[in-house]
Each structure stands twice: as structure tokens, then as C-alpha cells.
Amino acid sequence: MFKDHHYLTGDLSNASRCFVAVWEGQIVGFLASMTMPNGYIKNSWRGHRVVILPDYQGLGIGVRFIDAVAQLHKDDGLRFYSRAAHPRIGYYMQHSKLWKPTSKNQKLRKDVTHDNLFNNHYVDNKRICFSYEYIG
Fold first, then answer.
1. Greatest CA separation for the chain
2. 75 vs 18, 48, 64, CA distance in Å?
3. Under DSSP, is residue 6 helix (H, G, I), strand (E, B) or coil?
4. Which residue among 40, 79, 96, 108 is least crowded, i.e. fewest CB within 10 A of its CB?
5. Number of other CB atoms surrounding residue 24 within 10 Å
6. pLDDT at position 15, please?
7. DSSP letters along 21-73, please?
């Protein structure tokens, strides 16, 4: 239902936690999160995919859906991070009191290169992304 509406790929990690957004009885969005393996930051997760169906885009559902899923993780005692290329998501987080920028925010990531984990779609060494931690 959502795979054709994401700019990367429909592939998901088998370790993903998956959520759907429902508005007035209609499924309107999908978000997957996954653990963020890191030797320094424990108990952390990150957004893996977020898709809002075209008929519901531009209404502010996506960023509020991300907030809600991030809060669910926080309620479980976990940290939650978001790295997004979409300017609307980045602009929202930049102006939200719920998010704080990480040290990698709006920087070209020389430490991230293509890999085969998700069909060579991990390309932050070629685009500047917004990188934030949810603080609630």
C-alpha cells in the first residue's frame, strides 16, 4: 500500500517496528522504526521509513505522526532519532521544541557511504539531511 509512495525503496528491515496512521477510519500513513546500533548511544531507535499517502500530504499529518511514534519510544524509555531529507520535515523539527538537532544536522555525511543493507539506498554522503533527536 505504501511502497510505491516512498522515494527510496519499499524494502524494510526485518527488525522494524511498524505503525500506521489512521484518520477518520482511513489508513493515511505508515512509519517504520528500527534500532540504531551505536557504541556510544544506548537504547536508541530511529525512523526508518515514513510515508503519507498522496491524498493526505500537506496537511501536517506526517510530522505529527513522527512526533507520536517518537513519543511512544520515549515512553518505553528509549531515545528516538530522525534523519530526513524532506525539507518540510526538517523545517518542522528545526522550529519544534520537541526536537533538538544532532551534531550531524544539515551536514554532508562523509562517514556514511553506500552499503548493501537496503539495496544501496543509504546515500547521505550525497545529500544534506536534517538530523534530530526527539526530546518530547
1. 43
2. 16, 19, 16
3. coil
4. 40
5. 5
6. 80
7. EEETTEEEEEEEEEE---SSS-SEEEEEEEEE-GGGTTSSHHHHHHHHHHHHH
Buried b / exposed e over 85-99, threshold 16 CB at 10 Å, is eeeebbebbeeeebb
How far apart (Å, rounded) are the C-alpha atoms in residues 111 and 103? 13
CA distance 83 to 98: 15
Q: Range of 124's domain?
A: 3-134
Strand (E) positions, 74-124? 79-84, 99-101
Pick out the chain residues at pLDDT < 70. Answer: 1-12, 108-127
Q: What is the CATH number of the domain that holds 40?
A: 3.40.630.30
The domain tally of the chain equals 1
Number of neighbours of residue 127 by Cβ within 10 angstroms = 9
**Model confidence pTM above 0.85:** no
pLDDT digits (tens, 9 = 90+) for 71-102: 999 999 999 999 888 888 889 999 999 999 98
Helix (H, G, I), strand (E, B) or coil at 11: coil
